[in-house]
Amino acid sequence: MRALAVPALAAVALLAHPAVPAGPAPCAPWPEGTVRAGLLLSYDGYGRACTYQAGGRGVWQLSPRPARSPAETHAALALTTGRYADVRIRVRARTLHQLRRPTPNAWEVAWVVWHYTDDDHFYYLVPKPNGWELGKVTPGYPGNQRYLATGTRSYALGVWHTIEVQQVGDTITAAVDGRRLVRFRDRERPYQGGHIGLYDEDATTCFTDLRVASAGKRFHGAQRR
């Protein structure tokens, strides 16, 4: 397989401060197809994406249009401009509101995705109110979705959670809030690289302190909390 074109700074990349005015300014609109601090807004789900400053740190916010029927869903996705192979990821994420009424689905929260090449090929980790899920979006499975590992530990809405993922070759290690969840080996056509993404469905979500490093490397700089 041809080696991926990894950015010169892929060894350690810090994507923590979208360029928005300091102070209590309102959330600055983030149009589709534009880049904020290394993240390209791929789509906003017919809703609103924006960036703002809080406590001296920058925050990306995604809020797609609320679904109007059980069969309807809207999603938002922001991607790194660079592609990564063996990689470590750490980001803080918070789900402010689930938008579906009257009854939201548990997975309508903040997701982290990686090795993304298109909407049919990527891995994801999603901490949910009723558990957690590691999965792979891939053709050939119902809904193009293959469940790799799940657990029952719950993650509350409205609070920040620190999500950490590392993938080396076909082996994925995942943790949330400092607690290791799983080490999983994908033996079925594992993805070898792609973009990192922040994603949500039918929810208003916030992300901050995104850090990306080559696997085996330390994150540089102090994490802002």
TrEMBL record:
Q: Does the keyword Ligase apply?
A: no
Could you tell me which Gene3D superfamilies the record lists for this protein?
Exo-inulinase, domain 1
Alphabetically ordered keywords of this record: Signal
Asked if the keyword Signal belongs to this entry, the reply reads: yes
Question: Which residue range or ranges hold the 3-keto-alpha-glucoside-1,2-lyase/3-keto-2-hydroxy-glucal hydratase domain?
Answer: 134-212
Which Pfam family, any one, appears in the UniProt record? Answer: 3keto-disac_hyd
Q: Signal sequence span per UniProt?
A: 1-18
User: Which GO MF term does the entry hold, naming one?
Assistant: hydrolase activity
The protein depicted here goes by the name Calcium-binding protein
